[in-house]
Write a structure and sequence with these properties.
- By secondary structure, the chain is an alpha+beta fold.
- The protein folds into three domains: 69 residues, no CATH class; 87 residues, Pdz3 Domain, CATH 2.30.42.10; 202 residues, 2-enoyl-CoA Hydratase, Chain A, domain 1 (Alpha-Beta Complex), CATH 3.90.226.10.
- 36% of the residues lie in helices and 25% in strands.
- Strands 3, 4, 5, 6, 7 and 8 form a six-stranded antiparallel β-sheet that branches. A six-stranded mixed β-sheet has the order 10-11-12-15-16-19, sandwiched between helices. Strands 1, 13, 14, 17 and 18 form a five-stranded antiparallel β-sheet that branches.
- Helix 7 links the parallel strand 11 and strand 12.
- Helix 7 packs parallel to helix 8 and helix 8 packs parallel to helix 9.
- The longest helix is centred in the N-terminal third of the chain and has 47 residues.
- 31% of the residues are buried.
- The N terminus is likely disordered.
């Protein structure tokens, strides 16, 4: 009896060992296939990329060969090409240089000229967080009416998460047919907010003005687009006919735009032949922008600025400050002191590329620095929306009025 029991145990042990051995064999075969195949792919890739001196076109050819040999799915040639170009440009690490697809170019150029259908916001890349930040909603736009504020982060559009790497694509998604709706998820501080906004035909840049107390003229506009300078001149002449003796130019929340428009406005105020701007390229060659006309505005001027005053706004403010033609009141400007050009490529796509930095007439650099005001004035903490500040709380405007009436 004891002998049979021992034999039975022996059979069980042998069965366990046999099962373990078979499992080992199967697993070994599987891992052999995995490692041998993986190793052959690694060796193939190493062989194909062994020439360290190869240029980008050769490197792309190498990866294309790997894709053709191993990739299981279908290849969309246009998507592959566009992805390669977009990634190549993003590799520069410049938040202002970007690839624009052929499909997006027409909309992009319309935006630059100041007319489009959408919700009306200026967006920038927050380089610290790689998020899309609202620089400012356009005055009177659907975004402003819905309650979008400067400093809001756009974290999703129509339910799809996004980062600053998707700037151009997100701008396209936010646009659409007039009367259609777009859903935005906004991060404001630690609060997440959802908005559904109806798209409209947005008039980007109305130049607005009025006569304040003590015959002070007041002009404001939110960007420098096509014809902004002409509209500014017309508005000034209208106010001049009403007897103004000094002028406030409100550039708060003005995100910039066409440089030539800013220079033309500066030319209405600066002396003839005065240096307005130095443009410096990568070879350190300078292009000097001078005023080629006689000024038409000769009165005390104060410019209002804040942290959303950027780009062409800083060109105008910096030029008039350095030339002694205006005082600046408010808070330090955004600090975008580089200039981009938009190039149309043979296939219809585009490249917005940073080509120059600019210096003010005193050769002051602005990029990532900003312009310090002559009089630093903060708005009260009780102000909830800096785009819609009640005059009774607008300490910056009040200071400007005070300085012009002394």
């Amino acid at each position: 009896m004891e002998e049979k029991k021992t034999y039975k145990i022996y059979k069980i042990v042998m069965l366990i060992i046999l099962v373990a051995f078979i499992t080992f064999i199967i697993t070994s075969i599987a891992f052999y296939q995995y490692f041998i195949k993986g190793d052959s792919l690694n060796k193939y890739l190493a062989f194909m990329t062994s020439d360290e001196s190869e240029d980008i076109s050769q490197l792309l050819d190498t990866y294309r060969a790997v894709i053709d040999k191993y990739y299981l799915g279908d290849v969309d040639e246009e998507s592959l090409k566009e992805g390669a170009v977009k990634g190549y440009i993003e590799g520069l690490g410049d938040p202002y240089t970007e690839y624009i697809s052929k499909e997006d170019m027409e909309d992009y150029m319309q935006d630059t000229m100041g007319n489009f259908v959408g919700i009306g916001i200026y967006m920038v890349q927050d380089t610290k967080t790689n998020q899309i930040m609202v620089l400012a909603p356009i005055k009177g736009s659907p975004a402003e009416k819905a309650g979008i504020q400067p400093g809001d982060y756009i974290v999703a559009v129509n339910g799809e998460k996004c980062t600053a790497d998707d700037m151009t694509a997100i701008a396209t998604k936010i646009k659409g047919e007039e009367g259609s709706k777009v859903k935005l998820q906004i991060l404001r501080g630690e609060e997440t907010l959802d908005f559904e906004i109806t798209r409209e035909n947005v008039i980007v840049n109305p130049v607005e003005g009025e006569v304040l107390e003590n015959n002070i003229g007041y002009i404001e506009f939110s960007s420098f687009d096509e014809n902004t300078a002409e509209d500014f001149k017309n508005k000034f002449e209208e106010l001049q006919s009403k007897g103004i003796t000094s002028l406030i130019i409100d550039l708060r929340n003005n995100g910039g735009g066409i440089v030539d428009e800013a220079l033309e406005i500066a030319g209405y105020i600066a002396d003839k032949d005065a240096v307005l701007l130095y443009e410096v390229d990568k070879e350190n060659k300078e292009n000097v922008e001078k005023n080629d006309s006689n000024p038409i505005i000769d009165m005390p001027i104060i410019i209002l600025t804040n942290g959303n005053t950027a780009s062409s706004s800083e060109i105008l403010a910096g030029a008039l400050k350095d030339l002694g033609k205006a005082k600046i009141v408010g808070t330090k400007t955004y600090g975008k002191g580089v200039i981009q050009q938009i190039l149309t490529l043979p296939d219809g796509s585009g490249l917005k590329i940073t080509t120059e930095k600019y210096l003010t007439p005193n050769r002051t650099e602005i990029n990532q620095v900003g312009i310090e005001p002559d009089e630093t004035v903060e708005l009260p903490e009780s102000v909830e929306n800096i785009l819609n500040v009640d005059r009774s709380q607008d300490t910056q405007l009040q200071k400007a009025i005070e300085m012009l009436t002394q």
